[in-house]
Amino acid sequence: MRRCPVLEQQAYAYRSDELQTGSSTALFGFIADCIGSFLEKHNEPKKRSEPLHMGFTFSFPVQQTGIASGNLLHWTKGFDCKDAVGRDVVQLLQEQLHEREISVQVSALINDTVGALLASAYESHGKTILGGIYGTGTNGAYIEKIANIPRFHTAEIKGHKTMIVNTEWGGYDSEREALPVTRFDNAVDRLDIRPRTHVFEKMISGMYLGEIARHVLLELVDELVLFEGYSSPQLNKQYGFDTALMSAIEEHHVPPTSPDSPTRRVLLEELRLDPRHVSDEDLETVERVCAIVGRRAARLSAVAISATIVQTERTKGNDTVQIGVDGSVIQYYPGTSPGRAAALTPGFDKSVLTAIADVLGNETADRVRIDDARDGSGVGGMSCLWDRSLTGSGTWRAAGVQAGRRCISVYRNNPSTNRGGGQCSGGAQ
To answer: Minimal CA–CA distance to 315: which of 303, 323, 307?
Structure first.
């Protein structure tokens, strides 16, 4: 099996949340600053006679107009830079690079799902059918027959029978006609920066799981089931219960009654509840709530994958069904079994596989392989550059800047692992 390039990565945290809702100049200027800082760190001049080529991995809905151009349709995941909507995101970044005299040319634009698909396909010798993102948000891209895409005539696609389709499945069922939306989901949606949009994403992605659980816990407080009816300023705060805290609770290895219980630590230290009002039964209830919210997310995630398997006619046969996935939830979220059994559950991906078996049957699920496409944004971006014959011996290349919620990540292919020279890539998580 081929191995993807070994990447060196530098993450740059956002200076403030205002970058997500301010001007496009501020956001794309920050991305350009991260690229410049990364080049300096690796002793690469920002000014040069020949520009470095960069692939821009952008994890938001875009109407792609060319290999290196695309207009932003709308924001997701808490972003709302209104002056960027409808504009070419490549141009927005390129303008900021030029303003800072950073000799980097954006030569390819891809979605992070496409990056995950390409990175996984690179290792699987082209057997991967789907690239999925389960992180701050969720989305998937898959390989479809061009004949199944009504808007295209095969004559328009020279010599190609298939195409990568970015589904933007996070926006599924905004009409709320199919998904099992609860009052807790409605509460999260009402307070979101973009209400009544991306319902599916808000039910399963890392940005929202903790917030869903928080609303469940508050209702139990109001009903005097939890904490003797007492809350705390942190628990009352929007997004005060982070999904990472859910993960910490679920991956514990000790009973909730133990002094070393992570659940007790989260409630007392992170949520700052009064220990006088926190009983052992409360700890068990909180664990159960987290497990239920996490399990639902895993099962809904499996629905999207299962639908893709059906669409690509992979429910029958003996071939392996390869799925490439990336994102913080799939990488770090533990199993979704309640109580101490969570410690014995291998992870979120195994919960997804169990749900796929429930949807499609064991015969199909046994052939599904969920591949870790970590750093798919960088590797996928670089593969786009390779396809365009932009790489060359002894040269640096840039691949993949992905705008996300928490930070900008910039990657570099370790030159010692690449005979053709190093690659530099950027991404944001």
So the answer is: 307
Catalytic residue among 33, 41, 88, 112: 112
Q: Which range of residues forms the domain containing residue 398?
A: 7-110+374-428
Q: What percent of the chain has pLDDT over 70?
A: 81
**pLDDT per residue as tens digits for the range 306-356:** 999 999 999 988 899 999 998 888 888 875 544 433 343 457 888 899 999
Please report whether residue 383 resides in a domain.
yes
Domain-embedded: residue 85: yes
| Number of domains, the chain | 1
Tell me if 405 is assigned to some domain.
yes
- Catalytically annotated residue among 33, 46, 77, 350: 77
Distance from C-alpha of 409 to C-alpha of 32, rounded to nearest angstrom: 12
Residue 364 has pLDDT above 50, yes or no: yes
Phi, psi of 411 (to 5 degrees): -115, 155
Average pLDDT on 361-387 reads: 76
* Long-range interactions of 303-307: CB distance < 8 A, separation 24+: 303/355, 303/359, 304/132, 304/138, 304/140, 304/167, 304/169, 304/172, 304/200, 305/130, 305/132, 305/140, 305/352, 305/356, 305/368, 306/356, 306/359, 306/360
Establish whether 112 is a catalytic residue: yes
Q: Are strands 128-134 and 321-326 parallel, antiparallel or unpaired?
A: parallel
Q: Give residue 420's pLDDT band: very low, low, confident or very high (50, 70, 90).
A: very low
Could you tell me if residue 157 is inside a domain?
no
What's the CATH number where 62 sits?
3.30.420.40
